[in-house]
Amino acid sequence: MKWLAALALLAGTAAADPAPAAPPDAIKLGGYLELFYAYNFDRPRNGVTNLRAFDDRHASFVLQDAVLEGTWTHGPVSGRIALQAGEAPDLYYQGEPVQPATGSAPPRGPDEFRHIQEAYFAWAAPQSIEVAGGLFLSPIGPETVAEHSVWNWSRSNLFFSLPFYHAGVRLKRPLGDSGWSAIAMIANGWNNTIDNNHVPSVDLIAAYAKGDWLAQVQYFGGVERNPGMLGEPWRHLGDAYLQGPLAPKLTFLVHADGGFEQGSAGTSSWIGGAGYLKLDLCKVWNVAVRGDYLHEYGAAPILLPVAWVASGTATLTYAPADGVLFRLEARHDQAAADAYFAGDLVTPTRRYQDTVTLGATAWF
Fold it and tell me: What is the spatial distance between Cα 93 and Cα 167, in angstroms, rounded to a whole number?
């Protein structure tokens, strides 16, 4: 298979490199808290700002995420455990496939693992290869779960629709001092702590990080439907992003993603993109804007309840000290059909929604 050839090539490239020196033993604790208050001008009767990660509640103070994390190294072995509770994990673990208890096996669904953000170990193997296994946040796209690691309070429609986490085994190797790394992962699939179809997925990444520049190109492929659904087609995903300086204190980020699967109902596909700008006004203030668009095609939807969604976001950030920041954000969402709530409790009745959010996060 193609992914076996890619893993063999990765290992072969490393054959001439010496083993890395073992790091000293160390244990480090950390964590963060995130709190927001958001107002939806459609005043949804059910209090839900739909299709949002993670500011999805109207007119309520919300604990978005509370995380306690620990990392350690012991010779060539390291690891990380991050425990969490809040609106964010309750939202994104809804993508976990439901499997009933059968025989001696317990049930699986949105509740069993939602309090674990990440849990993995890594071994610094010879030839500069890192071997890791466990539960990982998804490397797809430039956005991630923690607020202090992104530019806006809310996440793009691409982040909301694409995978949040993977369980599997990962290999990583830097390619000299070029800034490039090669990464390969075999995983259970999209948002799967347990594989729902017994066919592993493969993830291949070329990542770049040097100076002020970040870039990544990625392929993720596998069977993601439940057994028997639409002929269990292979789903292909391609993702790329680039971040760098445009001018002093002005940084850009562009992200593109697309994919398809060809099942018994025909071909379903999607394409999307997002563009970001961040301007550092001074040491403690910055402003960031984002525009994103995601369009889906085909008779068997993969990502969206409607044909397309788009949004425009502007975020003002104040970071008065290390380990704390406050954000004020305005956002407009638009959709191809009714996707957002207003007066009805269970049925979306709006093609648009406008919100303003005040959020704060602190970390150590």
Answer: 13
CB 267 within 8 A of CB 260: yes
SS3 352: strand
* Exposure string for 64-83, b = 16+ CB within 10 A, e = fewer: bbbbebeeebeebebbbbbb
Domains recognised in the chain with CATH numbers: 2-9+33-363 (2.40.160.10)
What number of helices (H) and strands (E) belong to the chain? 3, 16
Q: How far apart are CA 249 and CA 267, in angstroms?
A: 44
Q: What is the DSSP letter of 99?
A: B
Distances (CA, A) of 99 to 75, 96, 192, 193, 201: 39, 9, 11, 11, 19
Confidence (pLDDT) at 13: 41
State residue 33's pLDDT score.
98
> At residue 147, what are phi and psi to the nearest 5 degrees?
-60, -40
DSSP 33-84: EEEEEEEETT--TT-B--S-SS--BSSSEEEEEEEEEEEEEETTEEEEEEEE
Give residue 21's pLDDT.
Answer: 57
| Cβ neighbours of residue 109 closer than 8 Å, sequence gap 6 or more | 96, 97, 98, 99
* Residue that the structure tokens 């068997």 belong to: 300
Residue type, position 62, single letter: V
pTM check: above 0.85? yes
Asked if residue 83 lies in contact with residue 69, where contact means CB atoms within 8 angstroms, the answer is: yes
- What's phi and psi for 242, nearest 5 deg? -145, 130
Q: Are 282 and 319 in contact (CB under 8 A)?
A: no
- C-alpha closest to that of 353 among 343, 337, 340, 338: 340
Task: Give the CA radius of gyration of the chain.
Answer: 21
Mean pLDDT by 10 residues, the chain (364 residues): 40 45 80 98 98 97 98 97 98 93 92 96 97 98 98 98 98 97 98 94 98 98 94 97 98 98 95 98 98 96 97 98 98 98 97 98 98
